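Posting for a labmate who doesn't have an account.
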Amino acid sequence: MSAKPGIPRNALIWLLVAQVLVILPHLTHLPLWITGLWLGCAAWRIQIFRMRLRYPNSWAKAALMIGAGFGVYFSRGSLVGLEAGVVLLIAAFILKLVEMRTARDALVLIFLGFFAVVTSYLFEDGLLAGLYSLLPVTALLAALIGLQQGARMTQPWPTLRLAGSLLLQAVPLMILLFLFFPRLAPLWTLPQPGPRGLTGLADHMAPGDIARLGQSAELAFRVSFEGEIPPRDQLYWRAVTFEQFDGRRWSQSFAAQVPQEPHWQATGQPLRYSIVMQPSGQPWLFALDVPRMAADDAQLMADFHLQRRQPVNQPLLYRVTSWPEARREAERAPSSLGRALQLPAQGNPRSHAWAGELRRTLQEPEAVVQALLRHFKREPYHYTLKPPAVGADIVDDFLFSTRSGFCAHYAGAMTFVLRAAGIPARVVAGYQGGEVNPAGNYLSVRQLDAHAWVEYWTAERGWVSVDPTFQVAPERVEQGLEQALAGQEGFLEDSPMSLLRYRDIGWLNQLRLRWDELNYGWQRWVLDYQSELQLQLLQRWFGKVDATALGIGLVSALAAVLGLLALWLLKPWRRERDVQQRLFLAFERTLARHGLRREPGEGARTFAVRAACRLPAQAEAIHAFLRSYEQQRYAAADAAPTELRQALRALRRQLPWRRARR
């Protein structure tokens, strides 16, 4: 059997507790075999401590490492990437437990644990996740303290209290660093976890795509307006424009993705607001028409949607000014008119024929648009999350057979008919409305608010937005999806635990809104406290100064504060006053270089006598130093240390340069 391990019992207990707390928030995106790996390694570690099992040998460690690598590859499909990297990190964090022999190994394990805590924010960064992360951090601190306490401390609770008190003492410094340390851009970036970008609008649209989003309560973004929140029926949040139709689905055109700002004229009162957007994995930003941003990393594209250079892979705060009544490309025909008339050469013959009849009868584009809207309103069309299946001619089947669909069905069909009638038109996808939180006076827009509507172009008015869904289900635009689907099954059926399903319970709904407000504040003022917000806050306190000068000044001030704090804690002047003790430590180091180390608890005289026996040629010099030390230390504390220094020099002159080999 192996010798008793060098990790104290108290430290081992808190290491095991810390591992559970660190791994727990990762379980939703870790493969199941990780749980089995931890249970096996924890049991092995306990048996090692009880001296019933040996440490793994080199072959066993190699087998465990290779097995973990294969497990990551087969469960994640790769060893490269953020998700695979997190699984590898957790596996290493677990495997290190059975290999741990010394306090140094335990320190490596603890530092791995701190890093694993940080990686959990890549998957969940809400307020609850932030509060929970304090638990594994405290447990890791307790394990770190247990390593220093040694085997004499057997009760875990005093160690936990000390770890908690240290954490509380660090809070003021943490706040100072958070507020004043400059926000620097990362030197490199990694792709964010895939699951965070799976829910949301895509760069194409088939008839059932947005209907599936209508069953999700996931948050898309939150909006705070300067002033009153506009009426719900004016809140059309553009995300992306679809101009290409292949007979089955709508998609973006390549030309619309070219950064070229279109012509438009600001009219009416502007709306100013800020948005905190959730990760979408897409480069476009949500905004009301027509938006303008001061940020350099976003631009208004040719089809009037906002787009960044990089996809949104983390929560993003941005400010927008919009002119909902702006005239868009009314002065001259835009270059996109050809794309806005494109249709497949074959398919949907009944819709083509109907469009031709409308244009011949009504002549004017506006009259055709109004005729289509009246048709949707008067005929027995139904708004539903579960539309019946359609055949190859999806527009014909919807308009003349099923007459049941979601917003994408109505927007796609109307755009098709307008194009067939020679009127430029396109589908706009985004979100409509949002839930007002009266406590914080902001809007929460969720995936279930995903919507599609139509834009058509005339020479007199430019691009004009219309919503055919409003004709069929006006309550969808004026009140929301839940009211539009009253009496139907399917609302939030993919989110059975969502509190949105229980909004009719007053106290529960109030609790939900309050919690949402707390999360919004956490995200807006903590997670999104980046360089822009930091500069605004500091300039509010210190006035309008140059950002670089302010940053240098703050870093210098912070360094000075940390230096003063280090002086106060370490008190080097006190160590300088205790000259005898400092010289005795030098005496210890001198003898240690020759194989003589002072044992824990060994007195100065006992150590010197043992050293004199081991080094008889230098015995007289050792005893001379001991006599001088004892006289100055215990008999005449105020005596000058010159004699003690001379005794140490004499000993060093008598000792050889190198330790003699045995």
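Reply:
Got it, the structure tokens are right above this. The chain is about 50% helix and 10% strand.
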